Amino acid sequence: xxxxxxxxxxxxxxxxxxxxxxxxxxxxxxxxxxxxxxxxxxxxxxxxxxxxxxxxxxxxxxxxxxxxxxxxxxxxxxxxxxxxxxxxxxxxxxxxxxxxxxxxxxxxxxxxxxxxxxxxxxxxxxxxxxxxxxxxxxxxxxxxxxxxxxxxxxxxxxxxxxxxxxxxxxxxxxxxxxxxxxxxxxxxxxxxxxxxxxxxxxxxxxxxxxxxxxxxxxxxxxxxxxxxxxxxxxxxxxxxxxxxxxxxxxxxxxxxxxxxxxxxxxxxxxxxxxxxxxxxxxxxxxxxxxxxxxxxxxxxxxxxxxxxx
Length: 309
Known about the structure:
The chain is of the alpha+beta class. It has 12 helices and 8 strands.
């Protein structure tokens, strides 16, 4: 179901789906414009080349507010623009697009692969059961894969498509097992740094991320956020560092910076308007903060990464 009249990355009409037992003026989508899809879908697999070929191998900037997308590139390469940052990629690799990240693709023709789409409420439930997967599913970017990991992923995707098409008894169970096999191969192919630790810490971080999403435009202090969570600043720091390797203030700043980069790259708002929208009373202070963190002033970033017009 499409919330905008524009097209999505890839079309409907691929494999069947498994059934369930911000403020940026760019296109926002739910899932492919397929009227046969039901509201209770949880994940879907589509061929990469079909819609990319139709679009001349160029997918314009858009955002997904309700699902995470994994693009497994088995042939070719190109560039991925994510929140204004341009990343080059070559097969074999996976492009990870979590919810609310503005992204676009420019493929070198002919490219090929599969697109795995995960509905976010299902994914959130999955990540409570397998918190170790959070770093690979909540981190946007393009990630090269080793040959052994790619072979495992390719075999898992092939079996997953077959399972969905044939609709055998126990399809839901088998499909999730194959999905986990694919995600596990991705996880084991990544460096161990930053993986989530104990489930208790992961739960704290999940709550903190949700709170950051609600409050980052208000410029809350760390003390305020910790108090809202019913814990001390020290406890919050320990949980975040133990689970993600990042300080909670860095997580908060990264979220605000991601929003700032989106606004600079994809809107015509002035720098002062962006600063005020992110809770900064002083636009000059915002500019200094952005420059220190990004290495470019907001104006420089807009000139080098923004969309003309």
